[in-house]
Amino acid sequence: MTRRDEDLDDEIESHLRMAVADRIARGESREQAERAARREFGNLTHVKEVTREVRGVWFERLIQDVRYGLRALRRTPAFTTIAVLTLALAIGANSAVFAVVNNVLLQPLPFRDPSRLFLVSRIPTNLPFELPPGLDDRLYLSYRERARSFESVAGYQRQQVTLSGVGDAARLFSTRVSANFFSVLGVAPVIGRSFAPDEEQPGSDGVVILGEKVWRQRFNGDASVIGRAIAIDGIQRIVVGVMPGGFTFPASSDLWVPLSYRFDPGNSFIVHTVGRLRTGTTPQQAKAELESIAQESPDPRAAGFRFVAAIIPLKDQLTRNIRRPLYIFGGAVGFVLLIACANVANLLLIRAATRRQEMAVRVALGATRSRVARQLLTESVLIALIGGTAGVFIALNAVRAILTMAPDDRIPRLNEVHLDGWVLAFTVIVSVVTGILFGVVPALAGARREPHEALGQGTRTVGGAHGRLRAALVTGEIALALMLLTGAGLMIKSFILMRTLDTGYDASNVVTMSIDLPRSAYPDAQHIVAFHTRLLERLTRIPGAKVVGAVSYRPMGGMGAMGDFKVEGPSAMPKGFSVDKPTVSPGYFAAMGIRLLHGRDFTAADNGGAPGVVILSESVARRLWPNEIAIGRRISMSDNPGPGDWVTVVGVVNDIVQDEELSRHATLYLPFLQQTALFFIDHMTFVVRTDLASSNVIAAMRGALREMDPTVPAQQLQTMDESMLATIAEPVFQMRLLTAFSLLALILAAIGTYGVLAYDVTQRTREIGLRMALGATAGNVMRMVMRRTALLALLGAALGVLGSLAVTRVLTKSLFEVRPTDPVTFVVVTAAIVFVALLAGFLPAKRATRIQALSVLPHD
Fold this sequence. Notes:
This protein is an alpha+beta fold and 860 residues long. 51% of the residues lie in helices and 15% in strands. Residues 457-463 have low confidence and may be disordered.
């Protein structure tokens, strides 16, 4: 007995003595007084229990319930193992996805007061392509000087640069930033300093700030790098700072250089603009101010464009492309958790039925129904907490798997994803809620059982309310699993269509290598064209090279140039007709397997001294000159073409898939030997069609480039098949995750179906034996069990199809040439899940046919 119990006994005895003394004083005998006092006081045991509850002994009772529950779970290891493993898988999957959602979407950006950081944007919308948020260069300068809604405004532009002179030359992601960029974000270098205001001026911008990763990989984390000159695009820049680890904004920047302004009178450049909103100012006020400033200083180059102003939270912009897929994954693992709950609830209902005598005895001995329900609910929560604990370890591995499968640079802040206190708290909450969710119904069912019902022998417990509840849970599991499988099926079909897409070229046995020539070493078109020509000659001599070519913007390369053009003669130019404008070498079409439909290919004679020529894709020729011959027609890239600006169509090729949208584009191909605009030719991809292993050809291509110029790094050295996989990496990632969750759901649903049917067969053993004794055949018994299985499967499938019709619409943007209501997918998935359910019911049905009549009939 504890000290608290002794104090309680003393207090009760004191009250009794006072009551007895009072009655004796009124003339009653001691025996009469004691008997009356105890009668008025009531049941002493009940009073003690109530008092203990009031005084906090509920905690001690909880400890007792936990201890009893643990002993009960140890007595049924098979049940405990299955229930814990089921919940561990479901809770672990939920915790892993929450870890990604929490770090990517919910956690604030790692900047000072990030909720006040906004992107400022005013871009034209009537363009054939989408521009990222930003301001044109002139408006940016004006807005930065005049805006009062923001404490400060900074600009940045992404670019790629070549770092040379420190090991092998490497292509890195760089960002040109205004001097106040880091102060606006509230981040400072850990070594050195930020940029000074005067370093924004042309001629004074020869400085660079390194990212922590580059600093460690290229300079061994040496702090003496500050003040050292390094070559970036062939230009010497002084290192003035190193940013802290994990800071790579924007996107995956490796280094930062000053954003100096060199205006081009003929072109406008977009400057991404970020500002820190003043306290007390709303985004709507900032937007109105932006519109006012833009109207007060109109840009004559903007005539004909429709502009839309916006003040966008920085976090929303960074996560806008990944937000919907992550929510879809969250919903998918939520379905898995519901299926797991239904599974364990069924197990608990079955277990409660087997413990009916135990519960009845406890009630008969005086335990209240609430106490019995509390004990059963405690056991449920214990199962969930144990499952949640195991789920943490599953989540650790699941997070690693997700990070491994995730495509590079497609999910922002992915390097920040880990299991932290928030994820652990989420796991605990989910475990407790899950334990209550799947445990409350079995607990109430066990507590409501009458003692005389449970203590009776031979009572048949199948059927009734509990049997219908178990059937309903299995039906729900099948429906939820079908909904997940339908989504996965749609994604798989979409992937198959992507992989079998007719791209218009032959990607097999094609190896590519991209290069960027620095302006410092190759300042004009003559030097650039000469370099490309010599490299093409070297590549034709490498072993295994069958055909060699080059293109400025290769298919699936993520880059391109688009624009309109003029047509000579009466042919009307379609309004808003825009085309791709890659620059290619002779032999490119043969190397890529692009078919020449009419005319001829470019040749070495199509150089700068020859008349201008162009090759069209089929859709351009058909659009401009339907039912006519395009060869010999003339077009111009100039808005106001003079006599020397016209080029002649010499060939027509088939359309190809050029970009990540996987749609065929209208295209004009220009000969690189005739180009003088540097941005058309300083980036070039070389294409080699080979009959050897790609690894051998890749090594030879890298060697040929190194012999030409070791300061020029090779990029995207890969096969075209690998390029296609990289293009569709994001939908493939989504497909894999959704498929994994769907298969887990299917397995859980199959286990749930098997468990319920196996228990039903066990409980109906006597009935089945009687049927066999009365002449029923094994086939009759098999059909009886399978009929129940089919009923559950078909009802669940019907509900699942209805749910899928509503839910799969959220996948619309993730699908390629597949409708969310694709009938083939629905039929295949429905048939598959019905088959799995029937397979799960076959084993119990087969066991039922082996029941012998004599083994269940009473005999002397």
